[in-house]
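Sequence, please.
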């Protein structure tokens, strides 16, 4: 019986290897000799193998050699499922080619790939549109969910993302891994209350850098929205730097909103977590309700060397750098644009929630418009 089992297992391995060699455009699956994806048939076969859970791609490498899909014949299926045993665990080098998609899904994880459980995705572009219908979903143009110790580098989303979700990002919905040198160029509009970021919807990873958002984002009245990150969770020693928002961000109006919206991050960190945000700039108009800031909507972090050049409009707790900010420091930051609000309007910080904040060597060069508690530094200390 043991010998029969060994023979059967060997046959499965050999048939899998034969299938891969026949299906893709060449390669052996190593980083130096990756499997080649040359057309949509190759990509669809790759997705089928991953979704079946029968072929292991742990640490296997793939590389695109051409654009995949177009508007007339887009990719309609996702790579992976909601099951961690049926998601991609290798490496993809897009080689700066574009995959055009038309995806509509009620899955928990939605994107070109549902989840990344191993390896890295690099140099990949996605275009088309992605529609999410599950209000509990994590949605990204590239990946829905990235696990720790893995990451996305030099990837670019051009796909429009819309629908209902829990956390949505132009690149990744929820990441516990690194994201660097990525851009979002596709408009995002989510109709239910959720976390929305131009790059990442929900982040509890150690670092994100050199990312830019160029596309409009619109969220519902009680959403948490950032040009780069919607919600940066309360982990220790997180660093976000060298990121820029160039687009307009907007929330539906609600006078009693519990939302927050920032040019870079919607919700940032917590006291004593050593969260650092530096060298980042907002150029877009930010329109929200309460907790509206050029860099951060609400949070506690060390913010250094950041600049706001976009008009900031809100109701209460509206600031050129942060809407509501407490128990930390803002250093060497500039506001160069008009700030408009009702109460607690500051050139640097709107409100500290009576918890205090340190402002060092910051300058307001913009016009401040408000009805009460208006100050060049902190509206409501």
């Amino acid at each position: 019986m043991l010998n029969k089992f060994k023979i059967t297992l060997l046959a499965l391995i050999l048939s899998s290897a034969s299938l891969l060699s026949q299906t893709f455009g060449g390669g052996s699956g190593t980083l130096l000799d990756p499997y080649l994806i040359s057309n949509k048939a190759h990509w669809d076969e790759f997705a089928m193998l991953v979704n079946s859970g029968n072929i292991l791609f742990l640490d296997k490498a793939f590389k695109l050699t051409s654009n995949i899909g177009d508007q007339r014949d887009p990719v309609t299926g996702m790579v992976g499922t909601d099951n961690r045993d049926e998601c991609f665990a290798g490496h993809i080098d897009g080689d700066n080619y574009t995959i055009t998609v038309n995806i509509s899904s009620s899955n928990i994880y939605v994107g070109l790939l549902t989840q990344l459980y191993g390896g890295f995705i690099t140099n990949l572009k996605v275009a088309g549109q992605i529609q999410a219908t599950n209000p509990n979903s994590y949605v990204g143009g590239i990946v829905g969910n990235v696990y720790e110790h893995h990451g996305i580098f030099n990837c670019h989303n051009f796909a429009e993302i819309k629908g209902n979700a829990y956390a949505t990002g132009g690149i990744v919905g929820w990441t516990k891994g690194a994201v660097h040198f990525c851009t979002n160029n596709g408009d995002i509009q989510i109709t239910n209350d959720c976390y929305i970021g131009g790059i990442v919807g929900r982040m509890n990873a150690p670092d994100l850098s050199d990312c830019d958002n160029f596309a409009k984002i619109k969220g519902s009245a009680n959403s948490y929205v950032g040009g780069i990150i919607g919600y940066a969770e309360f982990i220790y020693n997180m660093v976000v730097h060298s990121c820029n928002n160039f687009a307009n961000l907007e929330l539906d109006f609600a006078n009693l909103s519990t939302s927050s919206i920032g040019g870079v991050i919607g919700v940032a960190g917590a006291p004593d977590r050593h969260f650092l945000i530096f060298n980042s700039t907002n150029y877009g108009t930010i329109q929200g309700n309460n907790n509206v800031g050029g860099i951060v909507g609400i949070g506690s972090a060390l913010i250094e060397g950041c600049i706001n050049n976009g008009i900031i409009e809100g109701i209460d707790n509206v600031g050129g750098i942060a809407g509501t900010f407490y128990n930390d420091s803002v250093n060497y930051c500039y506001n160069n644009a008009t700030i408009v609000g009702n109460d607690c309007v500051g050139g640097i910080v709107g409100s500290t929630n009576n918890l205090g904040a340190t402002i060092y060597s910051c300058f307001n060069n913009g016009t401040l418009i408000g009805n009460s508690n208006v100050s060049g530094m902190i509206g409501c200390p």
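Residues 87-380 form a domain with the Pectate Lyase C-like fold (CATH 2.160.20).
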